[in-house]
Write a structure and sequence with these properties.
This protein is α+β, with helices and mostly antiparallel strands. Strand 11 and strand 12 form a beta hairpin.
Length: 291
């Protein structure tokens, strides 16, 4: 009988020790399966309006910074440039005429003082300044027309991946309206959502380990870049009539909220391709920094 009591106590002690060890390990190294791959998405936005004449990329391809993505019909903008160049020539001719008239009047005044009224000299001077201003306006118009012509060719602003491409030749695009999604190649990170009770002692720069669902047998080293400062509130948000929205149900058990923790892989193996939305597990090693 005594042996059964002793055996039971030993099993209880061992179970308690194992439970305490597991809890201590989890408390020091919190872990979550609620992680996702994220990256910055650059919305490629044309700066001029027009019809697409050429699309130089396909869907789901990698591009480099400066690669030509698509072209917009140049005819309207080329005609606008030609028109402003002609207007600039006209303004330049008017400036030359104003200066010649002023020069003749000043020369006559020098040879025969009083031959040209002061008011006339002033008006001629004002005419020159007005002509100069008009020429500067037309110069600015030429520069704008040249820029608009250049904007008919849209280039990749960074290295990345084109995805969900819906643009086709013949499509009409509008200035300042995004038409192509470009995922920044160098901006991938893992966002893990941890219970607020797990974040005590978690600091920027702490070591972490990431496991992707697609390759669960490989553990990738990472570093904590930041811990979120807030999440969206359900209770207290503004509803109808500017009154707060309050959930009528109250749970007796207070559930810990989940806070996003941004983790950056220290090295991405060449045979692993990160994609936005992929599922990941994240483990944090408190107080340790990647070597």
């Amino acid at each position: 009988m005594m042996m059964r009591y002793i055996t039971t106590l030993i099993f209880v002690a061992v179970a308690g020790f194992v439970g305490y060890t597991l809890y201590s390990t989890y408390d020091s190294n919190p872990w979550t399966r609620d992680g996702q791959v994220r990256a910055y998405i650059v919305e490629i936005t044309p700066r001029v309006t027009g019809q697409v004449t050429h699309v130089h990329v396909n869907d789901n391809v990698q591009v480099k910074k400066g690669d030509l993505l698509f072209e917009i019909d140049q005819s309207v903008y080329q005609a606008s440039l030609n028109k402003t160049l002609a207007s600039k020539k006209q303004a330049s001719a008017l400036l030359k005429k104003a200066r010649d008239e002023q020069r003749r009047a000043v020369s006559l005044e020098k040879r025969a003082p009083g031959a040209v009224p002061v008011l006339t000299l002033n008006n001629l001077g004002n005419a020159v300044e007005t002509a100069k201003a008009n020429l500067e306006v037309m110069q600015a118009a030429v520069e704008e027309a040249k820029l608009n012509l250049e904007f008919t060719k849209v280039y990749a602003p960074t290295d990345g991946y084109i995805t969900n491409l819906q643009l086709r030749e013949g499509s009409q695009v509008t200035a300042n309206t995004p038409v192509v999604a470009l995922i920044d190649e160098d901006s991938f990170w893992i966002e893990g959502f941890f219970k607020e009770t797990d974040l005590q002692g978690v600091d920027e720069g702490d070591l972490s380990f990431v496991t992707l669902l697609t390759q669960s047998d490989r553990v990738l080293e990472a570093e904590i870049k930041s811990v979120g400062y807030g999440i969206s509130m359900q209770d207290g948000s503004t509803g109808n009539s500017l009154l707060p929205v309050v959930n009528p149900n109250f749970e007796w058990i207070r559930l810990a909220q989940r806070i996003p923790v941004k983790v950056k892989l220290t090295h991405v193996p060449e045979d692993i391709q990160l994609r936005i939305g992929m599922t990941a597990s994240v483990k944090i090693i408190k107080g340790e920094n990647p070597q």
